[in-house]
Inverse folding.
């Protein structure tokens, strides 16, 4: 992630926010801004997992459903009198297991990632419905509520948790051999395999992490909503992919990173928040996010031809890494 | 007949699975074998077969289309809104199909000209279609005064429900298209070896666009039949059909790497998926259970396909 790309995305974020604050003054109200960042925090956690997967040239369409399944099962456990610590562990274990299945199928059976994660999406959501039998679980303990609705040093906990996850995975990608392998795998799987990288294991790890992070986001999300039901997170795959793509990670893999995704998550959340403030029907939300994804990818293509753009805008439209 | 032989040779697991499921459900749940239920089963399968035919073409060409389910909802909504505003049956069908062709053209251009990965292009389109069909009537269904359009989904011709005729006719059309025309040969070649097809002087881009347009048209036809059968345009009715269609193709032996499989397998795949849903339904298992079962079958099918090929 080159610096100019980060800057161009920051400009986009600021421009959008400025535009929105002009059109709808309530956007800049302090509580609304905090709300935006808190929503972006959850999307950012999902985006971290999605970035890892997309960096390897894959995709994870199951994150919303894995989030729902893990939240629902841990909610059942906690509501039946279990402690919240074990509940969280159960959620994380379920996420990890779903991710491991995805990764194993991708790495060992050579199933295209979008297929197995799409199947996982239906499977996990189906299990969530079966587990809850149409009920909604709500009203959790105070300790559990702290994760999603609490404050630490005056900062909402989801923001801190998301920041911590971002730091961990930023360093994971940048300064560990795993990170280097993931980039290598994404740009050329065959040659990285020939140069001795255990590509299969890396792929399994990446999908497992994505499942784990989905469950982690699910814990924070359930805690904030104070409720768990099978339908939560249906739009999350679309949101997360949009955040990653806006953040400059290339779908072919091998280019991009966490910082871009964080800004991407903020941009997506600002767009959604702005739509709510401007009373754009929420039914149109998937339309707009779908368009955003297609436009961002198209801009990567056209950037090769648009020579006249001002230089600070160029990296926005440029295929990752070509700067 | 030779195609049946080829099918028998290529994927015997399909027929065994089919026979096994029939016996299983017949034993566990006797009402399954009643004539009424079997007729119902074929009727349910007809909509899925129409979508799956298009999905087979796409997958043979080494691509994927995740947007067909939402496209089905959208074309059903469009037809319903035209009928509700007093338009004729003919214009409802025409515009419904035009939506499918236009979206196929658009997706095809994204994939062929701009080199979008097909799954992400169609995933984005899925969001777009879902948004439009939800927004077009503020999230609720559209009903129309009874008209000739209702015949498409619930009429009878020679004692056989009309959707079955539609599905059978389209099956034959796609069969001819796939096995008796250059279009079909090029579709297989596209999935088998794209570069080779290009070097042989075929316009690969046009081929991709044509495949997506055919698939879009078939999906919108399926959407029309479905809308007519439930006698309303429902904004989310098609969601999940893309999943079932992919599962049908995979179970039928069409792989994700293009160039292998065919619509005979898909026919059996559709029967198996419909059988499974119907049987589980009779035994009192609701949609979530059915989707879990399809998910498992899909994964097993993929694994078997990949084992057979090694």
């Amino acid at each position: 992630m080159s610096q100019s790309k980060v800057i161009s995305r920051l400009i986009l974020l600021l421009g959008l926010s400025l535009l929105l604050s002009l059109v709808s003054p309530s956007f800049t109200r302090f509580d609304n801004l905090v709300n935006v960042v808190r929503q972006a925090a959850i999307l950012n956690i999902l985006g971290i997992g999605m970035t890892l997967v997309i960096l390897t040239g894959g995709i994870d369409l199951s994150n919303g459903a894995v989030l729902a399944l893990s939240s629902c099962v841990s909610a059942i456990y906690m509501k039946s009198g279990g402690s919240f610590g074990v509940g969280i562990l159960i959620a994380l274990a379920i996420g990890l297991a779903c991710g491991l299945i995805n990764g194993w199928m991708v790495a060992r059976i050579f199933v295209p990632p979008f297929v197995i994660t799409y199947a996982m999406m239906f499977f996990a959501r189906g299990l969530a419905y079966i587990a809850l039998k149409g009920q909604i679980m709500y009203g959790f303990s105070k300790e559990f509520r702290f994760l999603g609705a609490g404050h630490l040093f005056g900062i909402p906990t989801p923001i801190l948790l998301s920041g911590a996850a971002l730091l961990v995975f930023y360093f994971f990608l940048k300064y560990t051999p795993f990170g280097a392998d993931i980039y290598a795998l994404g740009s050329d799987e065959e040659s990285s395999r020939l140069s001795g990288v255990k590509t299969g294991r890396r792929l399994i790890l990446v999908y497992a992490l994505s499942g784990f992070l989905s469950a982690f986001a699910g814990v924070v999300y359930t805690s904030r909503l104070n409720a768990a039901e099978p339908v939560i997170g249906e739009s999350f795959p679309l949101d997360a992919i949009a955040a990653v793509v806006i953040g400059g990670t290339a779908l072919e893999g091998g280019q991009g990173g966490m910082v871009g995704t964080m800004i991407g998550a903020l941009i997506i959340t600002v767009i959604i928040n702005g739509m709510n403030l401007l009373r754009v029907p929420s039914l149109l939300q998937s339309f707009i996010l779908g368009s955003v994804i297609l436009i961002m990818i198209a801009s990567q293509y056209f950037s090769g031809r648009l020579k006249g753009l001002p230089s600070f805008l160029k990296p926005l439209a440029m295929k990752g890494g070509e700067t | 007949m030779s195609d049946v032989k080829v099918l028998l040779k290529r994927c015997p697991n399909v027929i065994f699975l089919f026979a096994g499921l029939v016996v299983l459900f017949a034993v566990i749940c006797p009402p399954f074998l009643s004539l009424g239920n079997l007729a119902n089963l074929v009727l349910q399968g007809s909509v899925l077969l129409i979508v799956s035919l298009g999905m087979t073409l796409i997958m043979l060409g080494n691509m994927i289309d995740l947007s067909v389910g939402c496209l089905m909802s959208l074309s059903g909504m469009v037809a319903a809104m035209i009928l509700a505003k007093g338009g004729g049956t003919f214009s409802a069908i025409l515009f419904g199909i035009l939506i499918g062709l236009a979206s196929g053209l658009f997706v095809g251009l994204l994939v062929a000209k701009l080199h979008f990965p097909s799954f992400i292009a169609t995933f984005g389109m899925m969001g777009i279609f879902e948004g439009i069909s939800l927004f077009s009537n503020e999230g609720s269904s559209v009903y129309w005064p009874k008209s000739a359009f209702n015949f498409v989904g619930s009429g009878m011709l020679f004692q056989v429900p009309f959707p079955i005729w539609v599905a059978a006719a389209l099956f034959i059309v796609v069969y001819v298209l796939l096995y008796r025309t250059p279009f079909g040969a090029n579709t297989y070649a596209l999935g088998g070896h794209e570069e080779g097809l290009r070097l042989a002087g075929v316009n690969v881009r046009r081929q991709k666009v044509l495949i997506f347009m055919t698939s879009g048209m078939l999906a919108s036809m399926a959407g029309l039949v479905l809308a007519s059968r439930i006698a309303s345009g429902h904004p989310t009715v098609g969601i999940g059909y893309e999943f079932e269609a992919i599962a049908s193709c995979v179970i039928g032996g069409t792989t994700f790497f293009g160039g292998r499989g065919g619509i005979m397998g898909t026919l059996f795949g559709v029967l198996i998926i419909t059988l499974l849903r119907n049987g589980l339904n009779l035994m009192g298992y609701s949609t979530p259970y059915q989707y879990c079962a399809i998910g498992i079958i899909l994964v097993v099918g993929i694994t078997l396909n990949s084992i057979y090929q090694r």
Remarks:
- The beta strands of chain B are 156-157, 160-161.
